[in-house]
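The authors assume throughout that readers already know how a fold can be written as discrete tokens. For illustration, here is how one protein appears when written out as sequence plus structure tokens:
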Amino acid sequence: MKKYLEQLHSKRVFHFEDISNMTENANTAKDLLLNYKRKNLIVKIRRDLYSVTELSSKATIANKFEIGSNISLSSYISYHSAFEYHGIANQVFYDLYISSETRFNDFDFEGIHYSYCNSIIDMGIETNSVNSLIRVTNLERTVIDCIDRIDRAGGLEELIQCLAMLRFLDEDKLIEYLSKYNKIFLYKKVGFVLDVFKEELKLSNNFIDLCHKKGHAHVKYLTDNSESDTFNKYWNIYAPKDILSYLEQGNNEFV
């Protein structure tokens, strides 16, 4: 029994299949699981997802990023949650956005709501070099995703606050992800938003021009009609008059 517990502690978060592989017997695995749960040595996170607990405090060992990255074989931390993981988020939310090729039902565990997001592209996902349990979108993919779904970025003000913390983006990666998404409106939104931060993020005029060329057609709204109340003729988009004003609202200087 002890040797199995040590193996589970090395995994931190695991599925029933992991225990079955250890014991080489499904019935033994079920008995072991029930025994460990009864003694509060492990905790059930959701169906077929478990974590070991601290031996003294019985607190769950796995953190929310480790849990989110192991809900399915393809799951990874995305959108605003990826900003938070990278230390960029202005605010910490109780929603954790998890992209996955395999659909799962949203669930709550220890005060965190784990929200399923469809994994549309399979690029720009990194495994942490120190903690291989965590898979997360890199900054460039996170920026593209959050501009695509501003609602999953915590809203426009939070997105602008996050972008203001960045000092560099690899435009080759941005172009690669935009090409993979292949959405005209996304080019427009990315160009419009990142044009404001062009110098700070070390983005070239060629990148902004590409976004303009690809996304200029058709009038669109950056956010909802009430917030995006000013027409920008160059980008052919309705948006708030001055998106940098959100930095003033958040008491954050843009330098």
Q: What stands out?
A: Residues 79 and 145 are 6 Å apart (CA to CA). The chain has two domains: 2-62, 65-249.
